[in-house]
């Protein structure tokens, strides 16, 4: 077999296939086999809770129909209820995301190439995918739309509702289809799946310390009082002519 070129290529192909399998499958399994897989309940962090409670404030009636009445009195009972309902919403939202095949057009993996971290946020790390909501992982294969692994906190829940209901109303020429079956005839009336999908999107990247503002923010000097006081006065009419 090694006496001709095709035989050499065949053996080389088998070798590189085995090498790729070991390096890309076996080694990661051995590296992360002792790392626990987090449940949806464990993924309810303060950022997710903020977004969940914000949904209750922005869409009170739809939220009540979908999840029930939020306990009024602060305390352990209220905290337990919110955490439980938020975890369930994350599961429902993930099912909606996968059911609509959103991963066909949106990836959830920021690669360490082409300055992707400057566009989408910090490069993705393996531990981020060791949880219930990443089974299966949503790496995606292409990007018709932007990567969503750092989407959480970038936009309001109102924006997501309007965008899901009618994408072209916010982004002219958007190829994204309308998901009006997640609403009761208008964008301010999302149903349980709609509310849950919004929460799932707000969950993406919620584990980062930089959530929700992972991009560098530089305030305009014109907005600073000291900048205004230091600015030269505008010339009066006729001066300098």
Strand content: under 5%
Q: Given the helix and strand composition, which structural class is it?
A: mainly alpha
- Computed Rg: 24 Å
The counted number of beta strands is 0
Q: Overall mean pLDDT score?
A: 87
Q: How many strands, which pairing sense, and closed or not: the largest β-sheet?
A: none
Q: Give the termini distance in whole angstroms.
A: 91 Å
CATH structural class: Mainly Alpha
The stretches of 5 or more residues where confidence is low (pLDDT under 50) are 234-241
Q: Compute the number of helices.
A: 8
Overall geometry comes to elongated
Per the CATH scheme, the topology name is Cytochrome Bc1 Complex, Chain D, domain 2
Overall number of domains: 1
- Quaternary structure classification: single chain
Would you identify the CATH H-level superfamily? Cytochrome c-like domain
Percent of residues in helices comes to: 40-55%
Question: What letter string, H or E per element, gives the SSE order?
Answer: HHHHHHHH
CATH architectural label: Orthogonal Bundle
What does this structure look like?
This protein is mainly α. 44% of the residues lie in helices and 0% in strands. It is built from eight helices and no strands.
Structure at a glance:
With 241 residues, the chain is an all-alpha fold. Helices cover 44% and strands 0% of the residues. Helix 2 (46-58) runs antiparallel to helix 7, helix 4 (76-99) crosses helix 7 and helix 6 crosses helix 7 (192-203).
